[in-house]
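Weekend entry, working from home. Most of the wet-lab plans are on hold until the incubator is repaired, so I used the time to fold the two sequences that have been sitting in the queue since the last round of cloning. Logging both here for the record. First:
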Amino acid sequence: MSLNRELEQLVAACHWIGGKGWAPATGGNMSIRQGEDFCLLSESGKDKGALTCDDFIQVEIATNRVPSGRKPSAETGLHTLIYRLFPDAGAVLHTHTVNATVLSRVEKSPALLLQGYEMQKTLAGQSSHLDAVSVAIFDNDQDIEALAARIARFAAQSPLRYGFLLRGHGLTCWGRDVNEARRHLEGLEFLFQCELQRRVLEAK
């Protein structure tokens, strides 16, 4: 698929995310890989439900350098980290949903374990509700470089798949292309909502 077509799909995904209220108040950021050396990342401060192809900025994956001098998202370093860690990652979506934000604070362990849900099969490589899906949770940090370094150290010891949560912040997920990243986002959000409601009901 051409880069222009992939970018159009990313813009459509952003409008879908905005319509669901998953990136409120210009929050969140999205990107696609542009060859081996660059990615195209959403510009800072833009309403994700109204993005156009012109609102994506070229960023060098190895250095976070922006050739145009425009201002990309604050979490640029997390997108480039994912592209460095996972050569097959073609798109990254970062959202600020209520389910992801609340669960990341309620769950005190370093990972959220999901098991017993048929919708786990929306995640690449998952074939049964009996398997456990582990979603890593990292403490939030305004120092993105330090946060990226912590995530990289974790990834060197334990596999990161599909995405991770930032405590009190939101979900970052990825896929081989926009469609897979979008499927992972929707699947994980459904699972987060189920898990959150299960915990509320069990606490009564």
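Second, folded right after the first finished:
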Amino acid sequence: MGQTLVGILLNAAMHGGVPRLRTGQESLANYEEAAAAYGLTPCFVKLSDIDTQSGFSRVYMKTGTQGYRTHIVPTPQIIHNRAIYDPHSSGIDRLVQQGIQVYNRCNRYGKDQIHALLERNKELQAALPATSSGLSGLREMMDRYPDLILKPCRGSVGNGVMRLTRSGGERWIWSYSPAGSRRSFIRPVRPDALPRALRARLAAVPYLVQERIPLAEIGGRPFDLRVTVQRGWGGAWQVTGMFAKLAAPGGFVSNIARGGEALQTSFVLERAFPGEEAARVRMSVLSLSLAVARELEQSLPGLADLGLDIGVTKQGNLYFIECNGRDQRYGFRKAGLSSVWKDSYRQPMGYARYLYEAALRMNSY
């Protein structure tokens, strides 16, 4: 075809929506525009359509006014992974073994795994909340801290997150939302008689138990910052952009999918902090985010695209909250940052061009 192809690897359900332009929060138009800026042609593929024996793949590509049609093409040598697979899946490993460069090979990491990796860096330890795990860890943390957040190690978009707050003496308040609901429920509990439902949740899946950071607030609503850190043209990490996530009234999680609101960072910081403090906080968030990405790349191969949640206290102290290996990006659009939303697609395509040219230089020696 004479085109330089870049593969966009999608899960089967999203891949099936490509010809109908129904791909959820993934913007096909943004991929097309971003890839074209670097002389690339995007093709959308799922793992089962890559034939490692023949070296060809069945992909969706845009064909003029006819929309997206199926094509059989040589498997792209550079693939941007936007799919989530079981950690034990060997499909991507087989591609890498054949010399195909897949970036963001894995994009769903356990919160406990990420915390352990960052904890090894002494300079980052001050930005990590006190953390334990499981039922025994919960009891230990209840002895030490009056406010706790409980997170499933492999949960996403705030699902399964709970809060335990001491309300006086031995009395605690358990706050949680049932699966699929944005409503929060509260229930009094005692450390020596934790409810069966709470113990069952902790037994069902691994949970991280963390000291709840007293986040800065706007109108009584806590917020944190989503920072998109990516590799682009040149290969170096850079911050593409950030926006603030404001928790719903009365809520304790800021996830947009759980009722949180996406707002521009400058708007929020300038209302939470006086004068030059807002600018200082912003610059510190940039530095921390880049340090986190550089530390994680030491242990996680193929890392190139991260969404980091950074908490800011009322005193302007920063804490790393969690890492998203498949940043949803749409928060920029919801915050009115359309150009940054497009940049979050452009950077990965720039990185694909960088990898292609690096491979050409290596082959020319």
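Plan for Monday: verify the second prediction. The chain has ten helices and 19 strands.
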